[in-house]
Every structure is written in structure tokens, then in C-alpha cells.
Write a structure and sequence with these properties.
Blueprint (H helix, E strand, L loop, with lengths): L5 H5 L6 H21 L29 H12 L11 E2 L8 H13 L10 H17 L7 E5 L2 H15 L4 H11 L5 E6 L4 H9 L7 E4 L9 H13 L3 E8 L11 H8 L5 E5 L24 E4 L1 H4 L7 E5 L2 H8 L30 H37 L3 E3 L7 E6 L11 H20 L4 E7 L2 E7 L7 H18 L1
Parallel strand pairs: 1-11, 3-4, 3-5, 5-6, 6-7
Antiparallel strand pairs: 2-8, 7-8, 9-10, 10-12, 11-12
Helix pairs in contact: 2-3, 4-13, 5-13, 6-8, 6-12, 9-10, 13-15, 14-15
The chain binds pyridoxal-5'-phosphate.
Length: 498
């Protein structure tokens, strides 16, 4: 079938059902073959920037091509040149592979073609989203006062939350804009987050007119957690200077080191000032599914809003971000706009049109894949996998600690290990500028050498100014042997560097 030109078979309309079925099977084979083969690829393809676009014709195709040829090109040109997030050696950034169940969900999402902007444009999309949000909320151990919806990314979820915070603080920017806020004499708005908070918070401030200057980066302690005392004094200084504190973002699982801000203490500081508390648990939130591991989450139930990304450590394919909030009405005030063409005329039964809570109109039916995945794994299946990743991370941390030529650079509360090569000969001299610079250089070269093996892919950060290699576990297909191999490669390449 794949040799046939679909347009010739089915005329000017789309594929007929049987041609479509055959085409789906052909694509399903490509997908299953990829899953079988992914470990045979180098995790990061050995390509240079600019080399790939040249593989494709500069001019657009004028005529149709048979599916078989298109899929051949996919196999030859596209698949091998991807960064293989589905490879268990992918340990960079956060290891966030798409589960098989999530991929099946994506296929059904595409098939059903819902736009969940209004209840009327997708009754099931709207109502299943509410069901899935409630399931996840319960799984995370949060009270029923939290409602919410699913966005594309944590960046969007945080942007929405901070827009709510901005408006709740009296900067009625949705209506009057920035000029209106100035006229009301409220003072410059201030948002607080730790120096280790994700850049999406700064970007939200830039986008919302709060400005980068509106974000105060609070210093962290030795474990890279926000210092609640420093937060309290920053707020005091701002109030004394006539500025207007509006929100604080606490992170449970920061991007660099997965550090955990003391949410309960932060809530205690924020509450008397009426600050909006947003908790960024985009990565770490998955661990709250394990009741016995909820210690780091103490106080998050006091938040105004929380973000947890199923596309990070809950095995959903990009994209899916859960935004929970107690203040749906505020978010609606910040974004609601109903032009005539979107109005539902019969309003006898009130419905939720989710687009009214977000800066975008069109919305994918992300709840469908989350529903499928929750059915497939069950909360217990998710818990067991996350628990396994937590164990793997402890195992690696133990190996690092036991090696006199390596150094662990942060606690390991979740599934990411921060480390560096520090030959025993320089122990005690790490702070000397020359040694510090040499260690940075050595570790940058070490990471590069390991990545060039193609067997694993690692990324880096800087902690307390030091070049830090991050090993992010949490891969659905990751086993002990993959972690052991990554550690072996790190030691082997370090020894080769001298
Ligand atoms: N917050 C944290 C703690 C993150 O680690 C990340 C990304 O890694 C984000 C937010 C942004 O996530 P997204 O890519 O979904 O916008």
C-alpha cells in the first residue's frame, strides 16, 4: 500500500478509511521499529549545526509523494538526526521520555481532533480535563479546594499564575493596562523567587509587564534552598521603599540541583503580606504521588497555585503541564474575553470554557493522554516507577561519594545527581583560583568526552560558581545497568583526561 500515491487512490478528498488504516499501520510499524532500535543510536546525533537543513530540497514539493517514500526519508533523514530523548542513556536536563501509553494517547488526540477552547467545541475534552485534574490532585495529596486545568508547559502555567497574582494585588492590568496601575499609585510590583528558580519565572515577569527588575532573587543556603529569613528582609525593605510585593514563587525541585525551598516557612513569611504563593513543582511534584515521600512538600497545600508537569517525570509526551489553583476566579478575570463569535447562546446550564483562563484560545485535548496514562499505569504503577528512580539516584550518589576522585555537589532529594571530577591531588585546594579554573575546564571536557561516546547524554549547570555535571535519572526505560554504564564512562573518561 505504501507505494501508492494516496491522492491518486482517494481523489481530492482526504484518505478513505481503508487507505487510512493501511497508512496508520505503516506509521505504527515505523514507530514500533524506532522503539526497538532507539538504543542503537547515539543519544545525541553526531552532526554539526547547519548540516541538516541542507539534506532537504530548498524548493517545496510541487506534487504528491507516496507514503512509502516519505517514510523512507523519515527513516534516513529525520529519525537518525534526532536527539533521542527516548534512549535510556538520555540523562541530560530532566530525563523526560514519552511512555508508550502517552504516545498512544497522542495518536488518539490527533485522531479525535478536538479543540478544547469551549465546552461546546469539545464537551468531553472540557469535562474529562476536570476529571483528570481531580484525579491528579488527589494522587498528589492536595485538598479539593484546588481546581485547575492543563496547559502546554510549566512556563505557561507560571505565566498564568503570576498574571493572577498581579491582578489580585490590584494591578488591574487586564482592564487598565500598565498605565492604569501607575495611576493608582500602587508602587512597583515585586515578585520573589530564589536565585536558583527557573528562568520561566523571570520570563513571566518580562512578559507580564512586571519587568526583570520586578523579580527579586532571594539568596539560597548551602543546599541551594531559598532562605526564608532573606525573603522576609527583602519584603521588609521593599515595603519600606514603597514598592509592592505581590507574589513569591517557591520551587520544589529546582532545575540545577533539584533543591527544595522551605515552602511552609515561605508561606509563613508571605501570608501576612497577602502575597500570592506559587509553587513550582514542575519536576519534583511527581514525588508527591508517594505518600511516604511527601516531607519536602509540607506547606504546598497553602499555595494559591501549583504547577506539576506530567511531561517531566510522569512520562507524558511533551506537552502537558498541570496548573492547580484555589483561585480560578482570579485567573478568569485576568484572561477572560468572549467575542461574539465564541459566545454560547444557550447559557441555561453554566459551562466552563477553559480558554477563558489562559492567554491562548485553541487548546489541545491533553487530558486524553493523561486519562489513558492514568488508566494504564494506575497511580500505583507511577509510584513504583518513581520510587525506582529515587533508588537509582541514591545508588549513583553512593558511588560518587565513595570515589576519592569525584565530588558530589548537591544533596540528592529526587532523581538527579550533581557531581564533578575532582582528582584527589587537589583536595583542599579547590578554592584556589587556578585550581578552580582547571576543575571547570576538566569537567567541561569530561562531559564532552562522555557525550561523544554516544552512549549517554549529560548536561551541566553551575553551582556556587563551579562547573557541575548533572546526571538526571528518571527515564522510564532506565535500568541499573544504564546508570552503571554512565558512571563507568565518567570514570573512564576522567582517567583519560588525567
Ligand atoms: N520549572 C522547573 C523547576 C523546571 O525544571 C522547568 C524546566 O525544566 C520549568 C519550570 C519549565 O518547564 P517547561 O519547559 O514545561 O516550561
Amino acid at each position: 500500500m505504501t507505494d501508492l500515491d494516496p491522492q491518486q487512490v482517494d481523489g481530492l478528498t482526504d484518505l478513505g478509511p481503508e487507505t487510512f488504516r493501511a497508512a496508520l499501520h505503516a506509521v505504527a510499524d515505523v514507530m514500533a521499529d524506532y522503539a526497538a532500535r532507539v538504543e542503537s543510536y547515539p543519544v545525541f546525533p553526531p552532526v554539526e549545526p547547519g548540516s541538516l537543513a541542507a539534506l532537504f530540497p530548498a524548493e517545496p514539493p510541487d506534487g504528491p509523494a507516496p507514503l512509502g517514500r516519505i517514510l523512507d526519508d523519515y527513516r534516513a533523514l529525520i529519525e537518525p538526526n534526532a536527539t533521542h530523548w527516548g534512549h535510556p542513556g538520555f540523562m541530560a536536563y530532566f530525563a523526560t521520555p514519552a511512555s508508550a501509553a502517552g504516545i498512544l494517547g497522542e495518536m488518539l488526540i490527533a485522531s479525535l481532533g478536538q479543540n478544547t477552547m469551549l465546552w461546546r467545541t469539545s464537551p468531553i475534552g472540557t469535562e474529562l480535563e476536570a476529571v483528570v485534574v481531580s484525579w491528579l490532585r488527589q494522587g498528589l495529596g492536595l485538598p479539593p479546594e484546588f481546581d485547575g486545568f492543563v496547559t502546554d508547559t510549566a512556563s505557561t502555567s507560571t505565566l498564568i499564575a503570576l498574571a493572577g497574582a498581579r491582578d489580585a494585588a490590584g494591578f488591574a492590568s487586564a482592564g487598565d493596562g500598565v498605565a492604569g496601575a501607575g495611576a493608582a499609585g500602587l508602587g512597583s510590583p515585586r515578585v520573589y523567587a530564589s536565585a536558583e528558580a527557573h528562568s520561566s519565572i523571570e520570563r513571566a515577569c518580562m512578559t507580564l509587564g512586571l519587568g526583570r527588575a520586578g523579580l527579586v532573587k532571594i539568596p539560597t543556603d548551602d543546599a541551594y534552598a531559598m532562605r526564608a529569613d532573606a525573603l522576609a528582609s527583602a519584603i521588609r525593605d521593599d515595603v519600606a521603599a514603597g514598592r509592592r510585593p505581590i507574589a513569591v514563587v517557591a520551587t520544589i525541585g529546582t532545575t540545577s540541583s533539584t533543591s527544595i525551598d522551605p515552602v511552609a516557612a515561605i508561606a509563613d513569611v508571605a501570608a501576612p503580606h497577602g502575597l500570592w504563593l506559587h509553587v513550582d513543582a514542575a519536576y519534583g511534584g511527581a514525588v508527591a504521588l508517594l505518600p511516604e515521600r511527601r516531607g519536602p512538600f509540607e506547606g504546598w497545600e497553602r499555595a494559591d497555585s501549583i504547577v506539576v508537569n506530567p511531561h517531566k517525570w510522569l512520562f507524558a509526551p511533551l506537552d502537558a503541564s498541570l496548573l492547580l489553583t484555589r483561585r480560578m476566579g482570579v485567573l478568569r478575570d485576568a484572561f477572560s474575553l468572549s467575542p461574539e463569535y465564541l459566545r454560547t447562546l444557550d447559557r441555561s446550564t453554566p459551562v466552563r470554557d477553559v480558554n477563558e483562563y489562559t492567554p491562548v484560545l485553541g487548546r489541545r485535548f491533553r487530558a486524553l493522554k493523561l486519562w489513558l496514562m492514568l488508566r494504564w499505569f494506575g497511580l500505583d504503577g507511577l509510584r513504583r516507577r518513581i520510587g525506582h528512580h529515587l533508588e537509582l539516584a541514591q545508588m549513583l550518589a553512593g558511588w560518587v561519594d565513595a570515589d576519592p576522585d569525584f565530588e558530589r555537589l548537591a544533596p540528592v532529594p529526587f532523581s538527579t545527581v550533581c557531581l564533578r571530577y575532582r582528582p584527589r591531588a587537589v583536595v583542599g585546594r579547590e578554592a584556589e583560583p587556578e585550581v578552580a579554573a582547571r576543575l571547570d575546564d576538566l569537567n567541561a571536557r569530561l562531559m564532552d568526552a562522555v557525550n561523544r561516546t554516544g552512549e549517554v547524554f549529560l548536561s551541566h549547570t553551575r553551582l556556587a560558581g563551579r562547573f557541575t555535571i548533572r546526571v538526571a535519572l528518571g527515564h522510564l526505560r532506565g535500568e541499573e545497568r544504564h546508570v552503571a554504564r554512565a558512571w563507568e564512562l565518567l570514570r573512564r573518561e576522567a582517567a583519560a583526561l588525567g
